Structure formats: C-alpha cells, structure tokens
Amino acid sequence: MNILGIGPLEIFFVLIIGILVLGPEGMIEAGRTLGKFLRSIIKSTWWQNVRKGVSEIQYLPQRLMREAELEELNELRDLAQRNFSSIGGSDLIDTSSWSGNISPAPAADRNTEHTPAGPSEVKDTSSQEG
Fold first, then answer.
1. Using one digit for the tens of pLDDT, what is the confidence trace for 38-91?
2. pTM of this prediction?
3. Closest to 90 (Cα-Cα) out of 81, 98, 99
4. What is the Cα–Cα distance from 41 to 35, expressed in whole angstroms?
5. 107: DSSP letter
6. What does residue 79 show for φ and ψ, rounded to 5 degrees?
7. Kindly report the CA angle at 94 between 106 and 83, in degrees rounded to 5?
8. What span, in angstroms and rounded, lies between the C-alpha atoms of 78 and 73?
9. What are phi and psi of 69, to 5 degrees?
10. Could you state, in order of their start, the residue ranges of all structural domains in the chain?
11. How far out from the chain centre does Cα 36 lie?
C-alpha cells in the first residue's frame, strides 16, 4: 500500500525520526497544528473551487458524449423530415413519439378479423364419437 508514492516502511521511519527530533509532546503539537492547517485549507473557498473544477473536468467526457448524441439525433430527425416531406409522405412520420409521447394506433389500423377464437367459439369434438 503506497500513500503518495511512500510505502509503509518509509512512513514508519519518518515517524521514528519525528519522535526522536520533536519528542512525544512535540509530535502531538505538530500533529494538531498540521490538522488545523489542513482543515483550514479544506474549508476554504479556494479548495471548494478546485474540487468543483476537478469534478467538471472528470465528467466532461460524458457530458460531451451526451451532447454529441443529441446533436446527431436532431440531425437524423431533420434529415428524415426533409426526406419524407420531399416525397409527399410527411404524414408518415409521427415525431410526437420521438419526444417520449407514444400514442396508440388508430382503431381503423387495428386488424380485428384475424383474432384467435375465444373459448366459447371452439367446438368440443371430444363428446362426438365417430
């Protein structure tokens, strides 16, 4: 396990040297001072702006891909509308379903002649022997 490129053995040696140089009470005071310094940095507006910038950079590729897909879909929709309107079939394209609004098919388009027979319409041939 490396923390900022420093291994556990190196961290142990730094702590031992710190205890030898500062002493146990000096290490406690140095740790407290370091903690206050880090807390002041993390709560500063500068650090918040850095984190916001890093977050925006991190999600930039996903945002660009979504925008590119939307542009491509809009271009395809415009192309389809131009092509169908040029052949006189503009009524064939129902763009309302592209925005998420799905309308049911008109009753005239539904084919009711070839529906399977219900249980009441099926002949019972088991009772007729023959």
1. 999 999 999 999 999 999 898 888 888 888 888 888 888 888 888 777 655 555
2. 0.39
3. 81
4. 10
5. G
6. -65, -45
7. 135
8. 9
9. -65, -40
10. 9-43, 45-86
11. 37
